[in-house]
Amino acid sequence: MKTFSKPYTKNQNINTRPEVELLLSCARTQIDDERAQRIKSLVKEDIDWQYLIATAYRHKLMPLLYNSLNKICANAVPNEAFNQLRELFQRNAQRNLFLSGELLKILGLLKERGIVALPYKGQVLATAIYGNLALRQSGDLDVMVQQPDVLEFKEVLLSLGYQPEIKLTPSQERAFLQAKTEHSYNFFNQDKAILLEIHWRIAPKYTCPIEAKDLWDKLEPFAFFGTTIPNLSLEDWLPILCVHGSRHRWEVVGWLADIAELIRNHPGINWEKVIAQSNKFGCRRILFLGLFLVNELLGVSIPTEVWQRIKADSEVTSLADSVCKDFFPETDAPERFLTTTIYQIRVRERLQDKLLYLESFLLWLRTRENTFS
After folding, report:
1. CB-hemisphere CA count at 13 Å for 121?
2. Which InterPro entries match (predicted)?
């Protein structure tokens, strides 16, 4: 299958600061000679290192930035900036190791109860697509189970010292788990400073209808720290990662880096299966937008046949232009509810999904008015 690829280019809608180009050039695990030379050249420019480090951290690209600079031109980076990056990198690696230990303990307890649990994003994703736990920036735990297992999962967490972020009565809890606006039940362990989110679907129903039950018959075994745990197939991960990023209007470039690494490191992806999955769940345009953005920002090769389908949807390019404008703003922009709402409606290709999102938005508005009236 032929592929469409391009080197990093300064999209007219993306901030053209050298720090931004340097960050995007470093946001990968494999760097060819041409890109390495460009990184060396950029490091010699008048780089605002504090801006670069803060931006990398905000976009969850700090580990990739450090890893690339360390391999290519560590001596050219000012000592203070390099030491700061190294400390942040090591702290992130230690945190991920700590979270992995907690995750394995929880998965073991769930297994004893006969509950199949899927680690969602986080440390398992870092191992699966980066091949190195330290190269992905994350701060909490996400675990998916089928909806009927959520309350038993809750009991396991309570026994380990976790407490729910919101206090619900049994009747409120049942309504919460049935609500199409909800997708996770969050618990916090104060002593360990760990937030764990129990997911039974990947996003609120108005964003995407994929639930745990839709994935369970396709789970694959995955080796993680000497044990075998369930994991998603590559063909399921791609649309799911795109749904997650799109739900937040791609406010974090690190989510695109995840998709980019998945594609680069797994050339055997069954693209027809990926597109069929996205068609089934009404998230084809969401998938196409994610693929367009990883090509535009990170130079990822997209199969020609897939690229042609992406370009055939004119909304994708338009949506990408609006998203790119907000990746690296010079000033903090106020939260724009209307912009986000319009985006969420446009990014869905089926009328029924557009109407579902609009219905949820109007419900949120009424709730907000009642709260402040």
Report:
1. 24
2. NT_sf, NTP_transf_5
- Amino acid, res. 284: R
The residue type at 100: S
CA atoms within 13 A on the CB side of 142: 19
Q: Which DSSP string corresponds to 6-41? A: ------TTS---HHHHHHHHHSSS---HHHHHHHHH
**What is the DSSP code string of 251-299?**
--HHHHHHHHHHHHH-TT--HHHHHHHHHHTT-HHHHHHHHHHHHHHH-
Q: Tell me the HSE value of 274 on the side-chain side, using a 13 A CA sphere.
A: 27
User: E-strand spans in 55-145?
Assistant: 118-119, 141-144
Cβ contact 281:321 at 8 Å: no
21: Cα within 13 Å, side-chain hemisphere: 21
Question: Could you give the CA distance from residue 250 to residue 8 in angstroms, rounded to a whole number?
Answer: 19
Task: Please give the model's pTM, rounded to 2 decimal places.
Answer: 0.92
Strand partners, 118: 144
At 131, phi and psi to the nearest 5?
Answer: 75, 10
- Domain ranges for the chain, please list them: 112-232
Domain 112-232 is found in CATH 3.30.460.40: yes
CA atoms within 13 A on the CB side of 32: 6
Say how many Å lie between the first and final Cα of the chain, rounded. 59
Per-residue pLDDT of the chain (373 residues; tens, 9 = 90+): 433 334 344 456 676 799 999 999 999 999 999 999 999 999 999 999 999 999 999 999 999 999 999 999 999 999 999 999 999 999 999 999 999 999 999 999 999 999 999 998 899 999 999 999 999 998 899 999 999 999 999 999 999 999 999 999 999 999 999 998 899 999 999 999 999 999 999 999 989 999 999 999 999 999 999 999 999 998 999 999 999 999 999 999 999 999 999 999 998 999 999 999 999 999 999 999 999 999 999 999 999 999 999 999 999 999 999 999 889 887 665 566 788 889 999 999 999 999 988 888 787 777 655 554 4
The Cα 313–Cα 203 span in angstroms is 24
